Amino acid sequence: MVENRKILRLAAPRGFCAGVDRAVKIVETALEKFGAPVYVRHEIVHNRTVVDRLAAMGAVFVEELDEVPQGATVVFSAHGVSRAVVTEADDRKLIAVDATCPLVTKVHIETRRHAANKRHVLLIGHAGHPEVEGTMGQVDDGEITLVETVEDARTVNPPNDCELAFATQTTLSVDDTAEIISILQFRFPEITGPRGEDICYATTNRQNAVKAIADSLDLMLVVGAENSSNSKRLVEVALRAGARQAQLVADKDAVDWQMVESAKKIGISAGASAPESVVRDLIAEIQARFDTEMDENALIEENISFKLPAILTAPVT
Q1: If residue 7 lies in a helix (H) or strand (E), which one and from where to where?
Q2: Distance between CA atoms of 105 and 81, rounded to whole angstroms?
Q3: FRET label pair with 184: which of 66, 89, 174, 271, CA 20 to 30 Å apart?
Q4: Which residue, among 212, 208, 216, has the nearest Cα to 263 in the 3D structure?
Q5: 234 and 169, same structural domain?
Q6: Per the domain annotation, does 305 fall within a domain?
Q7: Among residues 131, 179, 301, 302, which one is catalytic?
Q8: Nearest to 222 by CA among 241, 235, 237
Q9: d(C-alpha 72, C-alpha 59), whole Å
């Protein structure tokens, strides 16, 4: 073997999930149908490369709806929004296009159903994340409590005059969430949970793909944004599963090349909002700097897709 040859192990699946792919197509299709500018509340997905490309096409990213002219077209991000945001868009006569991932919408529906059945909801997730804000905004204040950590699960004191239910953010660590749910179920044996897992298939698949190769690695590089929950979880999963080092990188320019220099076996994955083009640029940069051999470890092939909203597929009248 060539001295200092790098063995690259590519985790698969990685990168774009069906919800992200749908959200990006929604902005592109809205631009085609309604013309620029199309306003987007928050980053459509947590990836600067994606956001910059859509901005160049005519998308205008805003933080709140008061930045959107009355009657304009606005897209809600893949992370989902509260009921108050939907009402505000309606009041301001905006053409609202909902790019919320259908798997997040499922959590919204579950949360509203629990509240309607007088169950207090314990939402497992990260404070300040747009998905959590959107889910908590599905019900009234006092009907939901955020549980962020194992310690929160041990100490949370929900109202004692109603039944309980739990829901989760879709992009959490599978293992951490399982531990939190276990504690809640031990403390509150009658607590109600989702029929299926709230953590989305893409998050689970990407974490499992990283686990499958991590213990053989000197370094795991995860392509993703610093504000991407599922990408940050992949770094944590890699370290727990045995990778000696792991780094979250936005792109090839963010790589710590001294870490790469000292590593022999390097894993590469990408969060669900990271384009494959950025992954390929990273691989090409490593190959330009080092002699390499490549191995792709595909655990599962994803073939899920979601339909676009009817507002984009209906003929213009």
Answers
A1: strand 6-12
A2: 10
A3: 271
A4: 216
A5: no
A6: no
A7: 131
A8: 235
A9: 12
Q: What is the CATH number of the domain that holds 53?
A: 3.40.50.11270
Residues 168 and 255 occupy one common structural domain: no
71 with 156, same domain: the answer is no
CATH number, domain of 253, equals 3.40.1010.20
β-partners of residue 291 are: none
Closest CA to 270 of 215, 230, 217: 230
| Residue 315 neighbours by CB under 8 Å, 6+ apart | none
179 noted as active-site residue: no
The position carrying tokens 């609202």 is: 96
Q: Is residue 223 part of a domain?
A: yes
* Contact assessment for residue 205 and residue 230, using Cβ atoms and an 8 Å cutoff: no
What was the pLDDT predicted at 240?
97
pLDDT category of residue 314 using cuts at 50, 70 and 90? confident
78 & 27 share domain: yes
pLDDT 10s digits, 84-95: 999 999 999 999
Q: Examine residue 312 and state whether it is found in any structural domain, yes or no.
A: no
Query: Residue 306: inside a domain, yes or no?
Result: no
Residue 114, domain extent? 103-187
CA distance 6 to 294: 8
3-state secondary structure of 142: coil
Helix (H) or strand (E) run with residue 110 in it: helix 102-116
Q: How would DSSP label each residue in 195-229?
A: SS-SS-HHHHHHHHHHHHHHTT-SEEEEE--TT-H
pLDDT tens digits, 199-243: 899 999 999 999 999 999 999 999 999 999 999 999 999 999 999
Do residues 206 and 288 both lie within one domain? yes
List Cα–Cα distances, 72 to 23, 255, 313, in angstroms.
19, 40, 18
**Tally of structural domains, the chain:** 3
